[in-house]
Amino acid sequence: MSDKDHRQLLEDLLARRDAARDNVSRVKGKLEAARTELKDVEEECRQRKVKPENLEDAIQKLSERLDSDVVSLTKEVERAEIAIQPFLSEETK
Fold first, then answer.
1. Residue 57, Cα to own-chain centre: how many angstroms?
2. pLDDT surpassing 90 at residue 56
3. Which residues have a Cβ under 8 Å from the Cβ of 50 and sit 6 or more positions away?
4. Where are the domains of the chain?
5. What would the DSSP string read from start to end of 12-62?
6. 42, 52 contact by CB (below 8 A)
7. For 66, which DSSP code?
8. For residue 41, which of 27, 58, 24 has the smallest C-alpha distance?
9. What number of helices (H) and strands (E) belong to the chain?
């Protein structure tokens, strides 16, 4: 390899090193932002009286409760529709 080739290879390697260093800095920034966001979410959980380590269980319970409430509401709306139907039928006479 000639001196020119060595010089070019060295310049290319230095550029790659610098790019890698920049990427590491960006990733560290993203990691720090993610850690900060995690702390914020954990604090919000605590304010809502949910232990962050039990978040999955809390979400599951809320999801089950939502499903149950939707079923109940659907039944109530259906009963109301049935109850009002005779009055609607009389209007069309």
1. 16
2. yes
3. 58
4. 1-49, 53-93
5. HHHHHHHHHHHHHHHHHHHHHHHHHHHHHHHHHHHHTT--GGGHHHHHHHH
6. yes
7. H
8. 58
9. 2, 0
Find the radius of gyration of the CA atoms of the chain. Answer: 32
Q: What is the pTM (predicted TM-score) of this model?
A: 0.57
Give the chain's length.
93
Cα torsion 5, 6, 8, 9: sign: positive
Do residues 55 and 45 lie in contact, with contact meaning Cβ atoms separated by under 8 Å?
yes
Residue 69 and residue 61 in contact, taking contact as beta carbons nearer than 8 Å: no
pLDDT at 91 over 80: no
d(CA 68, CA 90): 35
* Sign, CA torsion 61/66/71/73: positive
> What is the token pair recorded at 78?
């259906």
pLDDT in tens, 12-44: 999 999 999 999 999 999 999 999 999 999 999
